[in-house]
Amino acid sequence: QYTTIYTIHCFRGALLSLIWCHIFTSRREILTRIESVILGIVTSLSKDEAPVLALPKRSSWASVSFDTAVGLQMSSGCSVTTIRSDCPASATKFAQIVKIISVIYRLVQSNSYATKRDIYYNNTQLFGSQRTVDTIVDDISCLLKIPRRSLHVLATSKGLISGHLCYLEEDGTRINCHSSSAAVAVSSNIVGIRNIVSSAKFIMIVEKDATFQRLLDDHFCTKLSPCIIITGKGVPDVNSRLMVRKLWDVLQIPIFALVDADPHGIEIMCIYKYGSVVSPAMPVIPVLRIIQCSLLRVPEEALIPLSKKDEGKLNSLLKRPYLTSQPDWQKEMELMQQSKVKAEIQSLAAIAPDFLTSIYLPNKLRYGGWV
């Protein structure tokens, strides 16, 4: 039933899969770009000048553009931040960037991988904190104009996955996600996953870990029909997003996002589909549909007034470059703006404790109750 609904998207999905194969920058290209940066530093030193690095600013929507094939990406004319080696305020960061670039160069050259945690513990005095390494890896990705996943630096996954799914990790470990009471941590190396086998009819992204655990407890993956559920525990990490895209490429089955009917839930769904301003250059997730609490059907006592922060988030979302291609999403947000209320998935428990898994989701999935 679900596959029939999405048959028209299969050709587009196959085309996007080809694009995905080329998104991972070649090792030679990565090495060449790093060598270009180092050559610039050496050239400055040879002229007795202080080396300078120009980092694209990643915190502004003015710095990114939207492409329907690859999602959000850094704009060619984006503003930059100058990191000088002779300035006390930026000399330490300059040294940190050069150090991590040298680590990445060795990793790519030897076709090996390291985690961001490995890099931090290799020189804790230089970096000071794990967060510094995390930020600089993203900065280097933008500096080199190379997707972060191509830098051979892995991040520890925070996501969980469960359902009708088996696959092999790069080291040959067989992962079986088919358990009704437990979940498997999303792999830290999505590129290395192979031999994916699944009888799932659809994939459901779940915004919150608490809701994800409720679905597990209620044996959702086997009750309605075989499916796969995945959560990034709120704002998703890169690996959770890449895992969803990997499953789409291989299985070509519908993807749904179960999120709160609030600005935060909608933004999380947008991050899965298009990427984020601080981590652009992610492949888009095709045919993603949103399932959320309908503000028109949730009991009035369960509705929550929008805060000023919520209203600001809504205004920001409505200005996103990809919203013009999602008129139904726009309508949902405009309804939220007009009503000035929001609703959480947990509010459905006000109707009945098992309303979400026994009635709400089955009806939404059977009769097309998604946006």
TrEMBL record:
Uppermost EC category: isomerase
Spans traversing the lipid bilayer: none
Record protein name field: DNA topoisomerase (ATP-hydrolyzing)
Encoding gene (name): SPO11
Reaction catalysis annotation: ATP-dependent breakage, passage and rejoining of double-stranded DNA
GO MF entries: ATP binding; DNA binding; DNA topoisomerase type II (double strand cut, ATP-hydrolyzing) activity; metal ion binding
Pfam entry (one): TP6A_N
Cofactor needs: Mg(2+)
Family: Belongs to the TOP6A family.
Domain (Spo11/DNA topoisomerase VI subunit A N-terminal) ranges: 93-153
Compartment(s): Nucleus
Organism domain of life: Eukaryota
Keyword set, alphabetical order: DNA-binding, Isomerase, Magnesium, Metal-binding, Nucleotide-binding, Nucleus, Topoisomerase
One example of a Gene Ontology biological process annotation: meiotic DNA double-strand break formation
Source species of the chain: Amphiprion ocellaris (Clown anemonefish)
EC number: 5.6.2.2
Active-site residue numbers: Y121
Residue intervals of the Topoisomerase 6 subunit A/Spo11 TOPRIM domain: 202-365
Cellular component terms per the entry's GO annotation: nuclear chromosome
